[in-house]
Amino acid sequence: MYSYDLGVSWVELALTDTHFIPMSIFSEPGKPLELITHEGNVFELQSLAQRKWKLIEHLPDLDYKYLNTHFNEERLLEDYNDSKYKFLDNGDILKKDKAKWNRVTSIYFVDRISSVCECNRSLYITARKEAISPSPFYLLRIDEGQVRHIIITPYPDSGIRCDRKGKLWLFNSYGVWEVIWDTALKKRL
């Protein structure tokens, strides 16, 4: 679903006629929609009406063919977040600054990250602990390298985005929620 008015109304964009299968979708308010494929190709939506996509980048670190043949102790984020973040097996979250990876924080109680978003000078992460059944799903707020708020949600594999007004949104196939005061979710769609 795609919104031109910050979530007031939504338009469906079917991806069935494309020549690739998206692994993840990345969007920011006011910027073209991007998606990444299992081959590590990043496409940018050129025309919504004509459904034209342009290949803008190839990320070999996310190419399943490369990952299947090369051992790497780093586990990359499950979702594409403009390739700025990595999640390591030791719990460290790294952010890419130019060509250098810097440690942001360590989160030892999760083992999979779904989405990362910077909003209002904080870093927000949706994550889960797959080693526990049933798996708890988290929305975390990180400030100055520390986890400041934790919301346990019943919603798996949620994405998270910040709009132009600084509102934070959690979304997945179950709906869209506005994050209120970093402690509660209010269903909007």
Polypeptide structure, described:
With 189 residues, the chain is mainly beta. The protein is built from 1 helix and 16 strands. A 4-stranded antiparallel sheet has the order 1-2-3-4, with no helix packed on it. The relative contact order is 0.11. Mean pLDDT is 77; it is low at 70-82.
| Straight-line N-to-C gap | 11 Å
What is the strand arrangement across the widest sheet? 1-2-3-4
Strand content: over 45%
What is the overall pLDDT average? 77
Number of DSSP strand runs:
16
Shape summary: globular
User: What level of helicity do the residues show?
Assistant: under 10%
N-to-C order of helices and strands: EEEEHEEEEEEEEEEEE
**SSE-based structural type:** mainly beta
Radius of gyration from CA coordinates: 17 Å
Largest sheet: 4 strands, antiparallel
